[in-house]
Amino acid sequence: LDLENGLRHAIEHDELVLHYQPQVSLSTGAIIGAEALVRWQHPQRGLLPPVDFIPIAEQSDLILALGEWVLRTACAQNRVWRESGLPPITVGVNLSARQFTSQDIAAMTGRVLRETGLPGDALELELTETILMADTEAFTRATEGLKALSISLSIDDFGTGFSSLAYLRRFSIDRLKIDQSFVRGLVEDASSAAIARAIISLSHSLSLSVIAEGVETREQLAFLYAYDCDEMQGYLFSRPIPAEAFEGLLREGR
Ligand code: G
Ligand code: G
Ligand code: MN
Ligand code: NA
């Protein structure tokens, strides 16, 4: 409960901060996107990773205020980048299941886009397979509302859940994110490599784009390139970094 109250205070007093991890095109090497990842600059405990507070926020409606703060901050930041003549990128924001069940997410997102002036096609929302499995009428309406705003939808940690492939079509998914666990074993483990290849080919068969997460080595990158993966994200290129550092990378065009 202490942490919950602390977190409520943190949202209201700007103790949260976003770091951005670059997403890179494998064909051009250019940065094409940024995943926004929240941290809590805790006054006593230092910079806390999301695992330390997102699960707590998810136990209450606190996740709604936190989620809206993240969305607004990421959209406002990307608007600033776009206005400053940097190469245009898409910003990706992670969503929790409760953000679909406890509010009208399309209305909230539409409001944030209007208020920040960011075009919908410069925003990607990351869903998990668990969220997708909530195959309800309300969820269908929510995703239709988001698509009507020209927002991209991706499936995070793809391959670790149990979603049906039919959902990819039904909910107009744009991109799959290959889970890090498959990328980690790409070079040594035949079954990880087979799964990664299968996800890439599935994506292309359905005209989705596909990004590999957690790319740490040149060998993994070479495999992904050979398998015709579209994009990569991982420590090999960059860790998640503060906005100013990200802007530096974008400006250098690397
Ligand atoms: O940032 P890290 O590098 O530690 O991220 C760990 C986990 O926290 C990831 O699974 C990510 O999806 C989740 N996460 C990070 N930022 C957010 C956020 O703004 N909202 C939600 N719901 N999850 C987030
Ligand atoms: O939302 P998601 O679960 O995909 O969050 C991505 C998480 O993966 C974040 O915690 C981020 O810091 C982490 N991450 C990103 N790239 C790498 C990487 O190359 N290696 C490892 N081990 N973790 C990574
Ligand atoms: Mn993610
Ligand atoms: Na992921």
Automatic annotation (TrEMBL):
This is cyclic-guanylate-specific phosphodiesterase. Residues 1-254 form the EAL domain. It comes from Thiocapsa roseopersicina. Signal peptide: none annotated. Transmembrane segments: none annotated. The chain holds residues 449 to 702 of 730 of the full protein.
